[in-house]
Amino acid sequence: MSPPLKHRTLASAIVDRLRQEILAGSYPAGSQLRQDALAQAYEVSRIPVREALFQLEAEGFVRIVPHKGAIVSGLSLDEINDVFELRKLLEPRLLASSVPVLTAEDFDAVAGMEAAFEEAMTARDISRWGLLNADFHMALYARATQPRTLAIVAGLLQTSDRYTRLQLQHSSSIERARIEHNELIRLSRAGAMKEACRLLVDHIELVRRDLVAFLEERGKG
Fold first, then answer.
1. Cα-to-chain-centroid distance, residue 141
2. Helix residue ranges per DSSP H, the chain
3. Domain of residue 54, residue span
4. Do residue 39 and residue 132 come from a single domain?
């Protein structure tokens, strides 16, 4: 039996749990998420479960299908292109706004998050890769003065989580991510904003290309 849900509202707690279970593969693409079964498992009414499923639909994790309910979404080439193109547009803007006012303590925090990311990759702790990658990026953007853009990018990084985990399965991608993250820190510390923003765009684009190639290759199989 699942442990009782205790934090924030019931709906947001269910969103968090279901999102992690989808990312972990407990609910593969095409799985049906039945409101009554989930309500029984979490020992709640169907109302917060229904709210959670609508939120997960907005995040792209499920599709609400008439007469079938919530179905776990598959990996989508269109979504990859959309999400990563948006990231390429918005994240350099946040980086350019945030980095000039990051403190030494802020940079230490960024470096600490990168170290945690590398530790998780070394340990093959797949469940943490996407979250730690998002934490690293958001720490670099933390002092940006565009709160709406920050909220949008946070959502895009959350959506990217399942794709980031997939892309980092390859050792070459892991090593490249490590090198690019550390170079991004170095350029940002040095105040080389044009170079840092260019690297960030390239970094996001390379991940997109890896994922597109993976899905296209899988489609041939």
1. 15
2. 10-23, 35-42, 46-59, 77-98, 104-122, 126-140, 147-167, 171-189, 193-220
3. 10-72
4. no
Whether residue 120 sits in one domain with residue 50: no
For residue 157, being part of any structural domain is answered with yes
The C-alpha atoms of residue 38 and residue 18 are separated, in whole angstroms, by 10
pLDDT-derived band at 9, boundaries 50, 70, 90: confident
Enter the pTM of the model: 0.73
Measured in whole angstroms, the distance separating CA 9 from the mean position of its chain's CA atoms is: 22
The predicted-structure confidence for 28-65, as pLDDT tens digits, reads as follows: 888 999 999 999 998 999 999 999 999 888 777 888 98
Are the CB atoms for 121 and 180 separated by under 8 Å? no
CB atoms under 10 Å from CB of 203, counted, come to 20
For 189-203, the pLDDT digits (tens) are: 999 999 999 999 999
**In the chain, count of helices (H) and strands (E)?**
9, 3
Please, which pLDDT band fits residue 3 given cuts at 50, 70 and 90? Answer: low
Q: Which residue has the tokens 């040095």?
A: 190
